[in-house]
Write a structure and sequence with these properties.
This protein has 2 domains: about 280 residues, Immunoglobulin-like (Sandwich); about 80 residues, Immunoglobulin-like, CATH 2.60.40.10. Helices cover about 10% and strands about 35% of the residues. The protein contains 3 helices and 24 strands. Strand 17 and strand 18 form a beta hairpin.
Length: about 375
């Protein structure tokens, strides 16, 4: 088995060198992920008030979903309403969700998988490709590893694909709505640890019993991973979330209403998006909304270019309209460029100050002893 897994990982590495085999779905539409300010991160408590600041344009409703259930719709299908908002915070590799739904029949008495479900699939680097074991069984053909025949490679079993690939480069969460006497979600695949703190958190609010009607509110956040293996987080690679980045994301709402499921509502036009990241939708990590941005704020970062020469590159990250910059490097030297470089003459710890000026006034940001030269 060890040699088979080595073959499988070799195929993964080879495919990584090629472009994606399929683009994301809905090429004419890009959904938006709202950026929360760092001082207004939503508290995960089942209270939706933290989300009031999110504009209605970010809401994805049931009208954007397609029922692809193989069973006839339930009589009360029209009573189901769904509203989803997705957020992020600059500097944190987390996706925040608010899921609000109303239904005339909530199904959650079974202790197993059967449960009204909000199923999300996320591909943090939009690299695409199958993410479930059976999907990979058909995907890994000898043609994909440089040979001529396009037939399934029987040297790799579905069980081996499960441990090596299922949920590794993109993740699927079956979220119980509501979760009663069971985990809040099933992390479908080999890295089951991704649903636990410190990689995820959730809270729900509802006051109905099984079979009753009512409103359900779920708040949660997850960490998307470019690599999440069954061995645990020690080798995991979080997806780095940055402004304007496109990620792959979609969800499915599974509605039972008795024998069923009667509803299998998908955001992607492809029913099989639950297991193929190439069938997800494009979501853009948006900048702060204009009303949440300060008019002027000084900010900057730095990196050592050459420690032997004590050469440091400074980068302005200020917010707002800036017309002038003044840098004080802490050793008596100054500069007025936006992104200067500076060589320190001797070792030491330095306090560096950036003053910016614009139509809205002035702002300052100092960093104390971040710059340490040897």
């Amino acid at each position: 088995m060890h040699s088979r897994l080595k073959l499988l990982f070799a195929a993964v590495a080879l495919l990584a060198a090629f472009p994606r085999l399929a683009a994301l779905e809905k090429p004419d539409h890009t959904y938006q992920v709202f950026q929360f300010p760092a001082d207004k991160i939503p508290r995960i408590d089942g209270d939706a008030s933290d989300w009031v600041m999110v504009p209605e344009s970010y809401v994805v409703g049931k009208d954007q979903l397609t029922n692809q259930s193989k069973n006839p719709p339930a009589a009360g299908e029209k009573s189901l309403t769904v509203r989803v908002r997705v957020g992020w915070v600059k500097g944190l590799n987390r996706l925040y969700f608010l899921y609000e739904a109303e239904d005339d029949f909530w199904d959650f008495s079974d202790p197993g998988l059967r449960n009204d479900t909000f199923e999300i699939i996320v591909d943090g680097d939009a690299s695409g490709g199958p993410l479930i074991d059976k999907g990979h069984k058909e995907f890994w053909t000898s043609a994909h590893v440089g040979e001529a025949a396009a037939t399934p490679d029987d040297r790799i079993s579905v069980d081996e694909a499960h441990w090596a690939i299922h949920g590794v480069q993109a993740q699927n969460y079956h979220i119980m709505t509501p979760a009663v006497n069971k985990d809040w979600a099933v992390a479908w695949g080999s890295p089951t640890w991704i649903k636990e703190l410190p990689w995820a958190n959730s809270a729900q609010a509802f006051n109905f019993k099984h079979g009753e009607s009512g409103k359900y509110v779920l708040e949660f956040w997850i960490t998307p991973f470019d690599y999440a293996g069954p061995e645990g987080p020690q080798r995991a690679v979080e997806s780095v979330l940055t402004e304007n980045k496109i990620i792959g994301l979609a969800w499915i709402v599974i509605d039972y209403d008795g024998p069923g499921p009667r509803g299998f509502w998908t955001l992607s036009p492809k029913r099989t998006s639950y297991g193929d990241a190439s069938e997800l939708c494009a979501f853009r990590l948006m900048p702060l909304e204009p009303g949440l941005q300060p008019k002027l704020a000084a900010q900057w970062t730095w990196k050592v270019v050459d420690m032997d020469r004590r050469l440091v590159a400074f980068k302005d990250l200020s917010v707002g309209t800036v017309t002038a910059w003044k840098w004080d490097f802490g050793d008596g030297a100054t500069a007025t460029e936006q992104h200067p470089e500076h060589a320190y003459a001797k070792p030491g710890q330095y306090t560096v100050i950036l003053d910016v000026t614009g139509p809205d006034g002035t702002a300052r940001r100092s960093k104390i002893w971040d710059i340490q030269m040897k």
